[in-house]
Amino acid sequence: MNLSDIILIAIGLAMDCFAVSIACGFAMKKITFWPTFRIAFFFGLFQAIMPLIGWLVGSRFQLYIENCDHWIAFIILLILGIRMIHENFKKEDARKKRLNPYKLAVILTLAFATSIDALAVGVSFAFLQIDLWISIGIIGITSFLFSIIGVVFVNRYFGRYKIPAELLGGIVLIGIGTKILIEHLFF
Prior knowledge:
Blueprint: H1 3-27, H2 33-60, H3 69-88, H4 92-95, H5 104-114, H6 116-125, H7 132-161, H8 165-186
Helix pairs in contact: 1-2, 1-7, 1-8, 2-5, 2-6, 2-7, 3-6, 3-8
């Protein structure tokens, strides 16, 4: 897996953070530095930690499933991508829940919820040739930046253009999973 694949995976994973940070931006009365930074920091932190945990779990089983590791990576990324695409098409009322982005407990809960996908990606990392530390750094920084963008620019641009962040993220994850499978089967 090369650097561009890692960046695309990071962008795909960051789409959940982006979508939730947009909801946080809508819920905030006024966009200020510290609440925005805190949201982005914890989203980025959890997105970086979860692949590490997933890699630790997956690497313990690597020797047992080496022959089908590319299928596992493909299936995990396919399921995550389909789930993100499905979330995109849920009714808006079902996706909007009362949240208070000023409470730390709410932010931590949202950060954990948005990083479950990153845990599964970390499991798939155990079966691939990657530089783990660079990968989780890229994932964390990308999620941090996308979260800031989601909160800050929501009022200015998002309502006008209705960007389907979860749909795009799901498509990216499915594409990367398919690329991994094709590379292992044919090259």
